[in-house]
Design a protein that fits this description.
globular, 227 residues, 0% strand, 81% helix
């Protein structure tokens, strides 16, 4: 047991933890995107409100939330430690120039994109999660979301953050499977294209909300706000 715990103090252990928490967070994003897509049902936001109430009142979901927050914190701290370790291991400019020729921009800047995403999560959780669970909204959750995306700077920042999420996942997906030893020659290209597809789906899916709500495309905003 002690040896197993010591593993996570090593570089290999930290990368393993990064891979596992990363894949768990991707699974969460699938569920989160599904829930958000309910906003597009033209019923005045009723289905999304019912979904939100179910998520807030289900004891299993509330328990998983603690695991989710733990995964976010561990993933962020682990990413910071790995980034620092990588920089210390490559202090020579020549070595860094050589790496730029053999690695993608995504792989070299996972720390940067991760930092942007973590900053976004702080704002996102404060604006939505805290208000939904602990605030005193005088309107439905669907109306609150619709009004939030009417704010120019918030919608713009949200789109930028979702593009960053896509870039982060584009490399992180394949890297996670490589860390777990599942990225052999037989599956390498399949995992690469799958990672890119997943990244694009998340980027387009989540970016669609601020764009569609801000410009009231297809009458979605009007349907929820009753305009």
């Amino acid at each position: 047991m002690i040896k197993s715990l010591k593993l996570f103090y090593t570089t290999i252990g930290r990368k393993l933890l990064m891979a596992l928490t990363g894949l768990f967070l991707i699974l969460f994003l699938v569920e989160h995107l599904y829930g958000n897509l309910l906003l597009y049902k033209m019923d005045g936001g009723v289905t999304f409100d019912e979904y939100s109430e179910f998520m807030a009142g289900n004891i299993l979901i509330r328990t998983i939330e603690f695991v989710l927050f733990g995964a976010i914190v561990f993933h962020a701290i682990d990413g910071l430690l790995i980034t620092i370790a990588n920089r210390k291991a490559r202090p020579v400019p020549y070595e860094m120039n050589r790496q730029q020729g053999t690695s993608s921009w995504f792989s070299r800047n996972m720390g940067l994109t991760g930092a942007v995403i973590f900053f976004f999560l702080i704002i996102h959780l404060r604006h939505f999660f805290v208000e939904f669970r602990f605030g005193h909204l005088d309107e439905s959750t669907a109306r609150y979301v619709a009004r939030s995306f009417q704010i120019p700077w918030f919608s713009c920042f949200y789109v930028i953050a979702m593009v960053t999420v896509g870039m982060h996942i584009n490399h992180g997906f394949q890297s996670s499977f490589a860390t777990l030893g599942l990225n052999n020659k037989k599956y390498r290209m399949a995992l690469k294209y799958t990672g890119t597809l997943v990244a694009m789906l998340f980027m387009i899916g989540f970016s669609s909300f601020p764009i569609i709500f801000y410009f009231d495309l297809f009458g979605v905003t009007s349907n929820i706000l009753g305009q």
